[in-house]
Amino acid sequence: MHCPxxxxxxxxxxxxxxxxxxxxxxxxxxxxxCGERFSTVEQVEWRLPAVVKSDGRREAFxxxxxxxxxxxxxxxxxxxxxxxxxxxxxxxxxxxxSGERELPAxxxxxxxxxxxxxxxxxxYVRFASVxxxxxxxxxxxxxxxxxxxxxxxxxxxDLPLEDTAPKxxxxxxx
Length: 174
Description:
Blueprint: E1 12-18, E2 24-30, E3 37-43, E4 50-52, E5 58-59, H1 63-71, H2 81-97, E6 102-104, H3 105-119, H4 121-131, H5 137-150
Parallel strand pairs: 4-6
Antiparallel strand pairs: 1-2, 2-3, 4-5
Helix pairs in contact: 1-2, 2-3, 3-4, 4-5
């Protein structure tokens, strides 16, 4: 490592510590030529694959867009920021583990939908309705039925699947 104070090309590591989050190492260094001390931080540099859109365009993977994919369907849902962070990290890890240089946007969407299914079933259905281009109520019904079959009994939604009249249309007892 070059000294930032003088043109000396080599510095000595005095102390190394793992950062609080465990994702980086902080090193205290000293230049043998000028005696100045400074700190550096080492982090793993991950190369995430490019995302190939349905029209063939290629974009760099953008974690902000990924986070928005979770935040929009999770609006006004009882899911904490920490849970969203964990889901985003899980998708980033899935993307990284794919080992691909380019990944279709549909595949990233499948990673997102899998995490939403675990996080919140309502958000899952919201996302699925856009992602899978639901055409009518029947598409929602089929997705909810599939969700109920796929999840353990303790996690299933208690959503009525039969048509119900709005409260204002029900007859009033006199």
